[in-house]
Amino acid sequence: MTEKQTPTTPATTTSVATTGTGTGTGALVSEQGKTSIADTVVSKIAGIAAREISGVHDLGGGTARAVGALRERIPGSRTNLSQGVAVEVGEHQAAVDLDIVAEYGVAIADLAAAIRRNVVDQVERMTGLEVTEVNITVHDVFLEGDEPDEEPATTRVQ
Predict the structure, then answer these.
(1) Do residues 139 and 100 touch, judged by C-beta distance below 8 A?
(2) How far apart are CA 58 and CA 39, in angstroms?
(3) Using an 8 Å Cβ cutoff, are 135 and 98 in contact?
(4) pLDDT single digits (tens) 65-97
(5) Cα(112)–Cα(129) distance, rounded to whole angstroms?
(6) pTM more than 0.90
(7) Helical (H) or strand (E) element with 1
(8) What does the DSSP assignment read for 5-18?
């Protein structure tokens, strides 16, 4: 009966996770073991969170988007959700760098603030890591009609 009265690990985890810092890192290290989160996990979460914001047309610089467009043409391939996202993940913290293409007409400062807010919220909620910074580089502005044609209008060879 005394074993049931001494649940020290859950109380410790809860008290660390609710210290007011908003990090929740206590859930990653406990007396029962350690949880490690790979960089790819954080980059996917950050990529999805950034794409959720209205005004983000795409992620990645010019070369990354070109490679992504080629990749999507391959049958059976999936969209690279971490395209345009670079992360550094430590034991308790993560830093995120995003390369985006904004839609024309969107206030870029407001867009960046919304992206930061969503990325921080999602990464911290899902991983328990504290996000120390979210750096955003706007590589381009998307204009309606800038989309490449699916099929060329005329072919040069038959």
Answers:
(1) yes
(2) 21
(3) yes
(4) 555 565 556 666 666 788 899 999 999 999 999
(5) 21
(6) no
(7) none
(8) T--HHHHHHHHHHT
